[in-house]
Amino acid sequence: MKDPVARLIRIEGLVQGVGFRPFVYRLAGNLNISGWVMNRNDAVMIRVEGSADAVPVFIERLKEQAPAASQIDIINIENVFPEYLKDFRILDSQDLSDETSEISPDIAVCNDCLEDMKYQPHRLNYPFINCTNCGPRFSIIRDFPYDREKTTMSTFKMCAQCASEYSTITDRRFHAQPIACNTCGPWYTLHISNQMKNNFTEILRIIVQLIAEGKIIAVKGIGGFHLMCDALNPDAVKRLRKVKKREGKPFAVMFRDLKAIHEYAEVPEEEAALLVSWKRPIVLLQSKNKLTDGICLGLNTLGAFLPYMPFHYLLFDKLKTGALVLTSGNFAEEPIVIDNDHAIEAFKTVADAILTYNRDIFNRTDDSVVRLISGKERVMRRSRGYAPSPVRLLFDVDGILATGAELANCFCIGKGKQAVLSQHIGDLKNAETLAFYTESTERFLKLYRLKPSLVAADMHPDYLSTRYARGLGIKIVEVQHHHAHIAAGMAEHGIDEPVIGVCFDGSGYGPDGNTWGGEFLITTLDGFRRYAHFDTIPLPGGDVATREPWRTGLSLLYMAYGKELTELEIPFIRNLDKKIMALVTEALEKKINTPLSSGCGRLFDGVAAITGLCTKSLFHAEAPMRLEAAIAPGLTDRYNVDINATISFTKTIQQITSDLLNHVHVSVIAARFHNTIIWSIFETASKIRNETGITKVVLSGGSFQNKYMAEQAIALLTGNDFDVYMAGKVPVNDGGIALGQLVIAARKRDKKEI
Ligand code: ZN
Ligand code: ZN
Ligand code: FE
Question: N or C: which end of the chain has fewer CB within 10 A?
Fold first, then answer.
């Protein structure tokens, strides 16, 4: 017999905890290949020995047929001498070095498991069914490598049957770390009127009844608790709003299936693919029919998602309603509750029943939120299903911690050439969220075996993330907010050359002492030149203006008309309290407590107020969202705008005012205003290209979550031979800032500037 061909294969990527080793094992068996596969903390290693025909086929299929949730990033293949191995084995995990392979995000229950749930005697209706292709991962991992003892499943002893499946190589649950069944796994407990129910059939029956009666139930999910009620029952939804102390902000809705969504929202094919993906994010869809009052709150988008836990499926099987509000179980800006005792205490006056289970959540994750923009998935809140998948970079970022922004915070650590972003943390001004932040930072450093030697932070001296960075006592790089936004887009797309950075957001610290946020920055990873920016708007009352857009509206009218603004016969002015108007106008005149901002979000706020769409904002970015929702489709005309180093919208405001005086419909005004902004992007980018020859444009900043603005800008620029890039794997909002900070700090270190 001829000597076998032997190869040593090293794979980096998302290959642990996603059924990769059993897949390799089966593949080897099919091709009559011997050798072994082994998890190490830095990679998966495979030795194969087989015929000269079989080995190349093995390598081909390895890449092409890998499990859905896995991802091969780097594959090294080495020719080695055969050891004449007789069979193919899965060897024990080896903890070799400080290198860490990837941690899988949590994966929605798979179709095979949903089938097993109907037929497997020991898993009939078992709500914690999982296999190597699905189930909890990141939320239960305490340490690496990914083995059961290092997860919160360690307290459950496998029964004989599970143990046999776990060790049977041909079984779909071979080495499925969270393997469990009705005999040995976790179970649910329903806490209702001082009683505890453990019979799952009874629990389901009670919950179905409570939902039908319009009650609210707190339910433990994969990464934290949800508050749940019938999305078609207006009273239930109203009560949920009240108890959650959430007046504004739409609720996300979980639907029974795709068909159920079609009734209430447009579901084009691309969005449907996102909805059913194993990540099961909340997808922002164009809404169609109204569910009930208090869900979408007059916006034209609906945040929809599909079941992802076995429990969700079992529940919808019995429920009459096909739509449930499933909102994060938290209050105001606090992190979602993950602990059973905490939940029982926190929700006892809020929910009519509390459903817990006895497997701990170690890493908290919210539901992720995505939106399809220009045909690509754009993550807006990056958590369950997405975190902690890394972003691969072209250069080394090892040993760097980037502490992120203050709102919608995510932090990021550098491991080799990978940027590992944390799950969505939230608003650090909230004390509990800040505690979650520091705890998670420490956990990530431990999990990824990292001792940071360099920390990157925002330039804003008062950001709590910056203070945290300063307190670490290591070398620090402070990065301008919008530079970081653009660099994040560059990093995701592997760009390392000068770009036209268009950064629109609410606010970020400007080195000139003003608040920035309508910025055209000629950007490299080394630095940036502020080529042009939106004209600054004085914000009467400072920060209060973000919650009270009428202040900014008044300020814009003051810039356009001076004190004459009080004579304007538009509803916005007529409806304002005359005394307050006089006070604010005087403050603007005397420049008392009117800090300057070039933030795009503020301009949108002001226009939303003047047009009467939103004078008071109940949730972050409500005013811009209402302005976007108002757009009449298909209009191409726009207003005038003065485009220089300072981009002035005074003429725009004057034309909006005369449109209002002429009773032009607000939807037309909204479209014209958006088109004006888009035009300013195109004009300014063209000027930069003419002067510098740069053709690559990176769009970033939270304002580009506006689908109309982003899509129209991308289309106009692309149609005029610009290469346009926008982040999608990381948020364009402040949740993506940490990635930009990380790469900028790494570049400074490379150039020995730090
Ligand atoms: Zn499964
Ligand atoms: Zn079992
Ligand atoms: Fe920002």
Answer: N
CB 265 within 8 A of CB 250: no
DSSP annotation string for 412-450: EEEETTEEEEPPP-B-TTSHHHHHHHHHHHHHHHHHTT-
* Cα(546) to centroid(ligand 3), Å: 14
Number of domain units in the chain: 4
Collect the ranges in the chain with pLDDT lower than 70.
1, 95-101
> Do 352 and 383 sit in the same domain of this protein?
no
Ligand nearest to the CA of 486: 3
- 482's tokens: 């919008």
User: Look-up: residue for tokens 């299903």?
Assistant: 385
In a domain, 197, yes or no: yes
**Residue 18 CA: which ligand is closest?**
1
Which domain covers residue 231, as residue numbers?
188-357
Asked whether 456 and 468 are in contact (CB, 8 A), the reply is: no
| Whole-prediction pTM | 0.95
Backbone torsions φ then ψ of 640, nearest 5 degrees: -85, 150
Task: Please report the pLDDT score of residue 101 as a whole number.
Answer: 65
347 and 396 fall within a common domain: no
Q: Which of 59, 74, 90 is the last residue of a domain?
A: 90
User: What pLDDT, on the 0 to 100 scale, is given for residue 377?
Assistant: 98
CATH code of the domain containing 76:
3.30.70.100
Q: Are strands 642-643 and 391-392 parallel, antiparallel or unpaired?
A: unpaired
Q: What is the pLDDT of residue 166?
A: 94
| Residue whose entry in the numeric block shows the structure tokens 């002001």 | 606
Residues 303 and 387 in one domain: no
Instruction: Compute the distance between CA of residue 501 and CA of residue 486 in angstroms, rounded to an integer.
Output: 6
Q: Residue 296's domain is classified under what CATH number?
A: 3.90.870.40
**Rounded to 5 degrees, what are φ and ψ at 404?**
80, -165
- Tell me, in angstroms, the distance from the centre of ligand 2 to residue 201's CA: 19
- CATH, residue 667: 3.30.420.40
- Are 305 and 375 within one domain? no
**Closest residue by Cα to residue 187 from 203, 172, 211:** 203
Whether residues 707 and 591 share a domain: the answer is yes
Is residue 454 in a domain?
yes
Q: Nearest ligand to the C-alpha of residue 22? A: 1
Ligand nearest to the CA of 184: 2
Counts for the chain of helices (H) and strands (E), in that order: 23, 31
| 143/446 Cα distance (integer angstroms) | 8
**Geometric angle at alpha carbon 617, from 616 and 622, rounded to 5°:** 135
The answer to the question of residue 561 being in a domain is yes
Same domain as 721, residue 738: no
Ligand nearest to the CA of 123: 2
Tokens of 297: 């709150």
Ligand 3 mean position, distance from CA 506 (Å) = 6
Residue 154 domain-assigned (yes or no): no
Q: Per residue in 86-128, pLDDT tens?
A: 999 988 777 655 566 678 999 999 999 999 999 999 999 999 9
Last residue of a domain, one of 90, 109, 132: 90
Q: Are residues 406 and 455 in the same domain?
A: yes
Q: What is the 3-state secondary structure (H, E, C) of 645-706?
A: CEEECHHHHHHHHHHHHCCCCHHHHHHHHHHHHHHHHHHHHHHHHHHHCCCEEEEECHHHHC
Contact 8, 80 (CB under 8 A): yes
| 540 within 8 A of 551, measured Cβ to Cβ | yes
Q: What's 453's domain CATH number?
A: 3.30.420.360
546 and 595 belong to one structural domain: yes
What's the gap in Å between 41 CA and the centre of ligand 1? 24
